[in-house]
Amino acid sequence: MSTVINTTNAPAPIGPYSQAVLAGNLLFVSGQIAFHPQTGELQLQSIDAETRQVMDNVKAILTEAGLDLSAVVKTSIFLKDMGNFAEVNEIYGSYFTSNFPARETIQVAALPKNVNVEISVIAYKA
Asked: Which CDD domains has this protein been placed in (predicted)?
């Protein structure tokens, strides 16, 4: 059995998917891009601003599920340009303080809405 998780504090899906799905004790959060949830505008002023908005969207979905970033066990980061890795890594790292999740970072040819970064996570609900 699974439960769909949705919140107005993160952007609405732009396709046929849910913001997150809780299956057993695992929460699968769909890839987030830098849409501001209240304005619907992409936050593309800088890679820093873009990454912060993505991480804030992830946090909002986790919060709706009763979790926080400490519950994240796995992340996937998709970058349009691996040249942005250091900046994205610095912002991403500021959201985690200990017990860092497993992660991969992958350069891709393109991302939805021509953004520069997309991040998905898997969290464990004890």
From this structure: YjgF_YER057c_UK114_family
